[in-house]
Amino acid sequence: MKFSTINDEYNQLLLDFKGNYSIEFRAYNEGVAYRFITNKKGSVEVMNESVEFNFPAEYQLHLQQVWRTFGTPYEEPYTHLPSSRFTEESKMSTLPILIDTKKGYKILFSETNVFDYPAMLMQGVTGNRMKGAFPPCPVKQEYKGHDRIVISEEAGYMAQTQGKREYPWRFFVISNHDGQLIENTMMYRLAEKSQVADPSWILPGQTVWDWWNYAMPYEVDFVAGRNQATYKYFIDFAAENNIPYTLIDDGWSNSRAEPFRANPQVNMPEVLEYARQKDIKVILWMHWTAIENHMDSIFKIYSDWGVAGLKIDFMERNDQWMVNFYERTAKEAAANRMIVLFHGSFKPSRLEHKYPNVLSYEGVRGLEWKGEVTADNGIYLPFMRNAVGPMDYTPGAMVSMHPEYYANNEYNPAAIGTRALQLAHFVIFESGMQMLADNPTRYKKEK
Fold first, then answer.
1. 48 — phi, psi (to 5°)?
2. Residue 107: pLDDT above 90?
3. Considering Cα of 325, then 310, then 355, then 70, what sign does the dihedral take?
4. How far apart are CA 165 and CA 172, in angstroms?
5. Which residues does the annotation mark as catalytic?
6. What is the pLDDT of residues 383-409, one digit of tens each?
7. For 253, which DSSP code?
8. Which residues share a beta bridge with 173?
9. Under a CB-based contact definition with an 8 Å cutoff, are residues 366 and 394 in contact?
10. Phi, psi (5° rounding) for residue 26?
């Protein structure tokens, strides 16, 4: 939350049309928004939604153009194009999009209150225009192993939903100085009310994290790796430094499809009890398919284990089915008093307000990309991605760690020196859960 108090003041216009639908407009001091409302019986199939911008002059567009059309992790670097060059031949862009009019003001365009409906991308159109683009609703999905899920059949519509409902808000933050983009509160103003009656158990904070450094602390008296001793070492480090969480990432389970069975080198009940005694909360990494396959039981079981939350990864889609997966996940987690971190995810679209146990989303080219992260790209993040909600940028490391940096479990400073990642920018980002990504051994050397 950017401010302790937000005054929700706006002018509103509601236009009713024949055919049982309406358009609602709101005008705030910092921007404008609109949404469709339908009042039809039963369910409806939405074939398309027309969203089209016609630019009156050559504007500058700051975009995140996707690699794989609708199957995107929202981790592509930003591109910067004159609006007339964003055409049908261009790759589509995720939201938010930042539009520089070159006339003293900028416009940030995005969406919120996306539920039971696909998230929108934008497609360029020849003639200095752009329009909305939506993925079809998937009918069949096939698991192809590891992280690969293939949609093998799609419906002829983009959404099948209730005929009596409100649709996503499309909003525009209008600024005459860049600081207003960071300070904007449009997502909060347009959000649904929280469905969590007592949020006192939802605790944002910091977490140590084993993935970046491959769970390989050095100068230790045990064999490091994804094992019992290493996880206890991370818990000890968190306790010694008043860090409330430790995140145990991929590799703790026997396989990604086995969410209730740890690998042979880990006694998870013992690890969780050790963390409880140290007053450290544990977050477990999980592939989203394991959640989906056990949605009716996994949060209750993990809550009984004493797990504080889950980091859920590799969704990398924005169709209606996947949007609904996010909502079902957040709801089940809240019912069991567990926090959620969405990784491999689309950008925030209001769910974190309805279910404030959703503390963060990735949806950004963060420091996991190591040497492919640039200051030129990072400088836009506070004004675009972070302007619409919490962001898991995975900061907190100065050196890129890989297995080849270690020989016989010993620190190899020569390898570190030759492959070091030198970060040229330092920016504080808004997130409900900040990662301390570097190796605890390195942090200890800086005390």
1. -165, 160
2. yes
3. negative
4. 22
5. 313, 368
6. 999 999 999 998 776 665 544 444 444
7. B
8. 31, 108
9. yes
10. -135, 140
- What's the helix, strand, coil split of the chain in %, to 5? 25, 30, 50
The one-letter code for the residue type at 162 is: Q
State the alpha helices, DSSP H only, in 284-358: 288-293, 298-305, 320-335, 351-354
Distance CA 147, CA 287 (A): 8
Quick check: bond before 136 cis, omega within 30? no
Structure tokens at 160: 């099948």
Burial level of 353, CB count in 10 A (0-12/13-18/19+)? buried
- Report yes or no on whether pTM surpasses 0.90: yes
Query: What would the two tokens of residue 54 be?
Result: 């016609």
Tokens of 258: 């086995």
8 A C-beta contact, residue 83 and residue 60? yes
CA–CA distance, 177 with 378 (Å, rounded to integer):
19
Residue 399: its pLDDT value, please?
60
Identify residue 402 by its one-letter amino acid code.
Answer: H
Quote the pLDDT of residue 367. 84
Ramachandran category for residue 336: left, alpha or beta (phi over 0 → left; psi -120 to 50 → alpha): alpha
Listed range (34-48, 130-144, 227-241) with the worst mean pLDDT: 130-144
Task: Give the confidence band of 368 by pLDDT, cuts at 50, 70, 90.
Answer: confident
Task: From 344, 297, 49, select the one nearest 170 (Cα to Cα).
Answer: 49
In DSSP terms, 33 is beta-bridged to 26, 171
In contact, 196 and 356? CB cutoff 8 Å: yes
CB neighbours of 417 closer than 8 A, spacing ≥ 6? none
Q: Would you put residue 237 in left (φ > 0), alpha (ψ -120 to 50) or beta?
A: alpha
Amino acid found at 331:
K
CB 396 within 8 A of CB 440: no
The residue written with tokens 């099948």 in the block is: 160
Region of residue 194 (phi > 0: left; psi between -120 and 50: alpha; otherwise: beta): beta
**Within 10 A of 63 (CB to CB), how many other CB atoms are there?**
25
